Structure formats: C-alpha cells, structure tokens
Amino acid sequence: PKGNMAFAGKYEFEGDENYDEFVKKIGLPSEKIEMGRNCKIVTEVVQNGNDFTWTQHFPGGRTTTNTFTVGKEADMETFGGKKFKATVKMEDGKLVADFPNYRHTAEISGGKLVEVSAQISRIVYKKPKTSTA
Length: 133
What we know:
Pfam families: Lipocalin_7 (PF14651)
InterPro entries: Calycin (IPR012674), Fatty_acid-bd (IPR000463), ILBP (IPR031259)
Organism: Pachyramphus minor
Number of strands: 10
Protein name: FABP6 protein
GO molecular function: lipid binding
Strand order of the largest sheet: 1-2-3-4
C-alpha cells in the first residue's frame, strides 16, 4: 500500500549516477570521494512501522547508523560523518529527508532500494547599489 512501503532488508550497492558531481557539490573531501566511489556499501534497513534503523556497512568495517521515526526529528549523520538533525517524512511511498545541503529520498522500486540525493537550490539576492547621481 502507498505510504507504507516495506523497506526492511539488506541491499548491496549496484551502481551510482552523477556521483562525482554530487559529492563535489556537497563538499566531500577528496579522500572520502575516492573511498565512496563504487564502494560496495551494504545498506541494512530494519523497519518496525514508522521506526527505522538504517545502517550502511562500508568495506573495511566502518558503519554509519541512523535511527529515526517518520515525522519526528532525529539525530542523523551524513556519509561524510557530519552530525545534524532532520525529520524524515513519507511522501508517496518515499522516505524524504533534508540533509544539511541536499534532499535525500529513498524508495523501493522493482525490489531494489533506490536512493536519490539532490542538492537543494540556493538563491542569493543582493541589494542594488544606490545611485548617487
């Protein structure tokens, strides 16, 4: 049913698109970029209703775990190790979270876990110079 998708399971990395462009935009240091490229990450999701434990197992034994409840603010950690607070929402069967400088969505599609990270646009306006004439 929509809005209550079963995410639970273990997923192995299959491929990524626009990885370099994305990690540069979010300011990941180059050694982390190399570490993450085609990284055989295994993502393990434990779901109990709206409660999630989302663990990423990196080669070499490092793991990142985020525990959250849909609709409630939680302490999260980025791929690069930055800590922040976010509220994960469910929109059209996708989990959506606003990370510090990008929006992250996750959905189950064709039995696969598909995660999309998109940079949030940032628009800057400046005051026009006042004419002295």
